[in-house]
Each structure stands twice: as structure tokens, then as C-alpha cells.
């Protein structure tokens, strides 16, 4: 056993059975085969024990060196890891959510401001009653007799000024009168075709198309006038309403011609003149109300308004022609 301890301590793999001086190992003649087998068994046992000790010592001393992988060690749970991870993900989600709401809010506000800038609420233009329709027809057909003001009435809504609807303001534009006047214009054109013996669906459709084309030309004329005078931010439906008021004078002229044909040559120039005066006063005092407070109108602007009024005469005569 002393030889085994020395061999394990020195780190050798084979027992020191040789004699000092480097002599070879000799077995006694009497032991023979049994002694050889015992030596081999002892050597194998020591080899296994030494290999086990060597592996344990290597992992304990060299486990921290690079390239050496030691036995798996269960990590200690971090009680703050989940809390920090949850807080970090919550902050990220909150920051992204706030940025998304800010972006979408600014985008929707921008779209809403620009849409309301050019397109108003269609329901606004149909808030009318009988009294408004009567008074508005008087202003359109007889603008020289109107003694009231031409500016629109404002009211505070949501922290900013907004125009009152037509039911409360006679100078507010509406779409009820233009649509009714256009329908009356088409019906009277059909009656005229019938009295002339030239009624047909094709003729009525041509007159309908001509009326829409005239309305469109009137809108383009007014819109171009606004841009030329440096104020092109009026709502489109306002311009459509002002352009459609021309059919009130056209319907009155066609009705008078059904009763007396010669009245056409008197009423057509008169209604054209009245429509020109109405548009000039409307464009000058309603649409340019804000601009007139800060700067004075030049002679060029007056000439443009005069051209717009003169343009009503050929437009009225073209729309007033009823032929198959």
C-alpha cells in the first residue's frame, strides 16, 4: 500500500516495482503466473483512479481559463430581471404609443383643417326655411334694391369664429336655391320644346348638359377671379352656390317667354345685369371682407370684377337658347 500511495502522489501511471539504478522488472520463479496477473490488475486499478483524480483537478484549477468548458452550473435567478425587462418594454410601448397618437393626431388635424378650408359641410348649405328663400330670391333678382349689409354674420364655435348657417344669415350661400332653380330651368326648357313641337329626350338631355356646362364655366370664372385677386381659399361649395344662382334669373326669363315671347329680349339683359351686380357685391364684400380690412383694392381688382359682371351677358344668352 505504501508503494501505491507513492505512485499516486508522484503522478506515475505504473507502480515502482523496478529496483534502483534502472534495473528491469523480474518476477520470481515461484510466483510465476499468479504474481504477473496480480501486478496487471493492480496497475489497471491505479490507472483508473489516477485518471479520475486528474480530471477532477483539471476542472477545479483550469475551469476559468478560455476555451475550457466546465460542468454545467445552474444560474441563480435574478429577482430584478423580469421587473426591468417589463419596465423597459412598458416604456417602449408607451413611448411608441404616445408618438403614434401625436403623429396621427397632427395628421388628422392637418387633414381636417385643409378639408374644411376648401370643402365645407354639405348640410350647412341646406339649412334654409321659407323666409330665407323669399328674401334670398329678392336679393338675387333685385340686388340694387337691397338696403342691408352684404357681410356675413359670424359666431364663436369651438374657440374660433364660424359663419352662421343660411337660416340665420341672408348673405350666407346655400345650395337649395341653385338646385331648385336648375331643376326649374330644365323643366321650363322641356315645356318650351313641347310648345315648339320639338320635344324629344335627346333635345332635353342636350339642354341638361348645356346647363351643367354653364354652371361649370361660372364656377371656373369665379374661382379664377379669386386667384387673380390673391384670395383662392374660399370653400368650393360656396363658389358652386354663387355660380348656381344664375339659374334663378334664367328660369324667370324662360317662364316669362312662355307667357309672352317678346319679354325674353327685355328680361334677359335685365337678369344678366342683376346677376352681375349681385356677384360683384358678393365677391367684393363677402369673400374679400378680410382682405379689405388690411389693404385697399386697386383699380386692377375693380377691372376684374367688371369683366366678371360683363361675362354674365353672353353666358345668360347662351344658356337661354332653347333649340333642338
- Share of helix, binned: 55-70%
Strand content: under 5%
Bulk shape? elongated
Contiguous helical run count:
12
Report the order of strands and helices: HHHHEEHHHHHHHH
Mean pLDDT: 74
Number of strands: 2
Distance between the termini: 136 Å
- Strand order of the biggest β-sheet: 1-2
Rg: 52 Å
The helix/strand class is mainly alpha
Largest sheet data: 2 strands, antiparallel
Number of domains: 2
Low-confidence parts: 1-30, 62-76, 110-115
Describe the structure in your own words.
With 324 residues, the chain is mainly alpha-helical. It has twelve helices and two strands; from the N terminus they run ααααββαααααααα. A two-stranded antiparallel sheet has the order 1-2. The model is unreliable at 1-30, 62-76 and 110-115 (pLDDT under 50).
Can you give me a brief rundown of this structure?
By secondary structure, the chain is an all-alpha fold. It has twelve helices and two strands, in the order ααααββαααααααα.
Please outline the helices and strands.
Layout: H1 2-10, H2 32-62, H3 81-118, H4 130-141, E1 154-157, E2 160-163, H5 176-195, H6 201-228, H7 236-244, H8 246-259, H9 264-287, H10 289-294, H11 299-310, H12 312-320
Antiparallel strand pairs: 1-2
